[in-house]
Design brief:
- This protein has eleven helices and 18 strands.
- It is of the alpha/beta class.
- The chain binds beta-L-fucopyranose.
């Protein structure tokens, strides 16, 4: 085993202190805002607008404003369902590609103000941001750069329009945790495509909402995971090289977005987007195609369980409410999620780990604190692996292990690991995987055992495990 990227003195200090407060080596690491975003894990996406009433997915931008007329808008109902599902926030399409603004923007004449809804006095963003505050949820906005309605789209002046509408959102509705930039970019009314001034837009977000994370194909806050099924690859690095890439068609290959890059220069973690129905907007004929709680749980394991964030779209119906089947599925999914991770069998148990050629007790990996850790020296192919042993002291039945690296202080470093259980006095491998990063949830067939061993098989320099948790998931 070698020590690299860190001096032996510093390593022994870190091991003895067990707390790594500052980045200690030359690997990218999340900013404070990104760390908070990682902990947000799972939130809802809401696609709502004229398409809800015209049954389209991409509105033309020519729809009359009166088309938008929810009969019983109830953002508190969205929030209640979100909370029951275990979601921690809601991001809404403030404006989709059709250009219709769900708030009375001063820079467009295609808004709720021009509609009959609430006699033109309504503001969906006001209602939702207030409801999120009341219900303890975070709030974020999707503002489509592509605009099929705005007369200025396709000219340099549209960048002023976009900057102004963005500023309205950044300054008018309290704290935003995320700003979503869609990569879709087509022609506007005049047949022209837009050259966007994203640099300027980024500066506005930084100025007015420094804690908001910006989503796009290339971040800078978080990246599209490369598909719309809500999953990221089993091997998921939070780093990405963005030099030379743009958004949309000029973005990195979807295969790269799926895995990130082990040696990417920037910390740009994956966000996995998916809809609870086939479409992003509500269509009555899809009422019987709502994903089941088990399907949602599977998506959760392949997104959050692989260190990504999950943004799950739930489109309100023409009343302005989540439809009964969507709500029922979300509530049952939330119950399943809470039950699955409510009883961590590692809590209070003895833990030992490899330490400088020997073994030591390591209560830091099951103390429930993410910033205390056990540090492993570098392991590469052929080396003796590092390990952690969890001793239950009595037989326990488990089928799930959740692991975390302390990425905030050390960056992401584990390339390969395995999980073994003690069976008839011999170690038996039950799972093997690649990256861990922010978190990794491994499921395997239920097994009754007294001890679990996590083997660290391959690392980039030294590596640090913050938490090991064990569960029986029904
Ligand atoms: C895509 C859009 O074109 C879809 O309409 C939807 O908003 C999805 C989340 O992103 O790029």
């Amino acid at each position: 085993m070698k020590i690299s990227g860190i001096t032996p003195f510093l390593l022994s200090f870190l091991i003895s202190s067990g707390v790594v407060a500052q980045p200690v080596a030359n690997r990218p690491a999340p900013s404070e805002a990104q760390q908070v975003w990682h902990e947000t894990e799972f939130y809802l996406f809401v696609h709502f607008g004229p398409n809800t009433f015209t049954d389209l997915e991409w509105g033309h931008g020519t729809e009359t404003e009166d088309v938008f007329n929810p009969t019983a808008l109830d953002c508190d109902q969205w929030c209640r369902v979100a909370n029951a599902a275990g979601a921690k926030g809601i991001i809404i399409t403030a404006k989709h590609h059709d250009g219709f603004c769900l708030w009375p923007s001063g820079y467009s004449t295609h808004t709720v103000r021009e509609s009959k809804w609430k006699d033109g006095k309504g503001d969906v963003l006001r209602e939702l941001s207030d409801a999120c505050k009341r219900n303890g949820l975070k709030f974020g906005v999707y503002l489509s750069p592509w605009d099929r309605n705005h007369p200025q789209y396709g000219t340099p002046r549209y960048n002023d329009v976009y900057a102004s509408t963005l500023t309205e959102l950044l300054t008018g509705y309290g704290d935003l945790f995320e700003v979503w930039w869609d990569g879709a970019n087509g022609e506007g009314k005049n047949g022209k495509k837009q050259e966007y001034d994203f640099h300027r837009f980024e500066k506005l977000v930084k100025r007015y909402q420094p804690n908001a994370v910006i989503f796009s194909d290339i971040g800078p806050g978080c990246r599209w995971a490369g598909n719309e099924q809500g999953t990221v690859a089993e091997t998921n690095w939070c780093m990405l090289d963005t030099a030379g890439f743009g958004r949309g068609a000029t973005g990195p290959a979807t295969s790269v977005l799926q895995t990130g890059q082990e040696n990417g220069a920037l910390w740009i973690p994956a966000e996995c987007d998916v809809s609870i129905r086939p479409g992003w907007f509500y269509h009555k004929e899809e009422d019987d195609k709502v994903k089941t709680p088990d399907q949602l749980f599977d998506i959760y394991l392949k997104s959050v369980g692989r260190g990504g964030n999950l943004i799950l779209n739930v489109p309100p119906d023409r009343q302005g409410r989540f439809a009964p089947r969507d709500s029922a599925s979300l509530v049952a999914f939330g119950d399943k999620l809470r039950k699955a991770f409510s009883n961590n069998l590692a809590t209070g148990k003895l833990v030992f780990a490899s330490y400088q050629g020997g073994e030591s007790r390591t209560p830091r990996v099951n103390d429930g604190k993410q910033n205390t850790c056990h540090i492993f020296e570098q392991v590469s192919g052929g080396d003796i692996p590092g390990y952690i042993v969890l001793d239950f002291r009595k037989p326990e039945t488990i089928n799930c292990i959740r692991l975390r690296e302390t990425v905030r202080s050390t960056g992401q470093r584990i390339r390969q690991f395995s999980i073994e259980v003690l069976e008839n006095d011999a170690w038996k491998e039950v799972a093997r995987s690649t990256t861990i990063g922010v978190r990794k949830i491994c499921m395997f067939d239920p097994v009754t055992t007294t001890k679990v061993r996590i083997k660290i098989l391959d690392t980039v320099g030294f590596a640090a495990i913050g938490e090991v948790e064990a569960y029986r998931v029904e």
